[in-house]
Specification:
globular
Amino acid sequence: MFTHRPDQIYTSPLIIWHVIGVSVLASAVAFTRISTHAETDLILGLFPVTWVVLIGSLSGTLFLTVPALIRHLAISRATLIGMIIIGLASRLILFGSAPLWEIDYLRYLWDGSMVVNGLSPYLWSPEDILAGRAPEAATSLALQANGLVEQINYPHLRTIYPPLSQTVFAASHLIGEWSLTSWRTVLLVFDLASLGLLINLLRHLKQSVLWAAIYWWNPLVIQMFFNAAHMDALLVPFILGALLLTIRLRPVIASGMLALAVGIKLWPVLLLPSLLRHRCHGRLTGFVALCAFGIVSLLILFPLITTGLGDGSGLTAYATDWNRNSAFYGLLESGVSALLSVFDLYELDASRIVRAALAGVLIMISLMQARQESSLESQLCKRFLIVTAALFLLTPAAYPWYGSWVIAFLVLSPNPALLVWTATLPLYHLRFHPYFLENPAYFENAVVWLEHGPVMVLLLVQWSRSRRARAS
């Protein structure tokens, strides 16, 4: 007979846990090395973009074992500290990388310099400034930026980013002018705040703090924030802070915190109904919380509302025309367009119809999640996850860095189907492969479905099983 010591049950999961930690570090090293190569260089016979997709998808697939491991791992200070160090080291490694195909950070750096110098990024686009249609101070600033303005994406559009984001951009500029390193430092501060909030929330939920690895070790999150340097890392601590304050039964302060999140990106307004319906404490408290949200939001967004809309606005263009990497939206738009042509309704815009319909669906989902008062913290976390995942599935622009919104809530309300995005969203980079640059329709009609299709199928399976379980 074999003898079995109690501690032996943890041996195998702990080894795999360490292997995944090493793979997270190795991915960061690989992305950094790949970023030193030109786009047309061949590395062992493959383009750099192919290696980025392979490494991202393989590390993401291995990462899918993390939830099962956490359920079998004993919590210890050494394991927690090791998890934090590995995630931090992976981020710091990417400080030495060049952004792979993503240059949105140039807009952040430029907007920050505009704000610091007393200029509004809502009034003049980069194209206006380069063409001499802006004040002389803006033209002079562009000359000091050493060619940065000429490289900005969509130069004909004024900035899309709300005022609180602009404040953070300005803080980055004060740390280091037009510096990617200073911007990544700001992102790291916000990301560390997200980690602290996740650990705090997990303790409130009486769950293992190792669940924070779903976010902190996530290779997709790490690459999108610290190689591509996307600003969505600013949003995560605000929505997590609003969630924590709601759980602590501070609805008025929580509503104010959610309004700050809206000052980073607008969509967290969809979380407000669920926030207000958690352990309701009377109509007066709910009304005060709603007023707090409205007042803070209005004060923060006032510059955007008054000067950041209309023709040439990045936000207006995004809301009316943007369509990137979305499987569900693309399918609906094609279907509505075909239907309109059947009835000769060519004067109607299929894109606008689908956008309006999906916006209505998202509002309905937001309200339906709050139709009953929530009394459990886990129930509130699940509602936040459902609303956020629905937004990502239905949005016309489903960029992989938007997946970070969902992944943050998966720490608190695990869902294996949604976690699959970690393995599939790296396929997005194939749009930069020479083949798909020449054949973009193949990317839109095939690769996009490889990114989102598996998640949709798994969600459908989950729904079917839960329906059968309720019926039985």
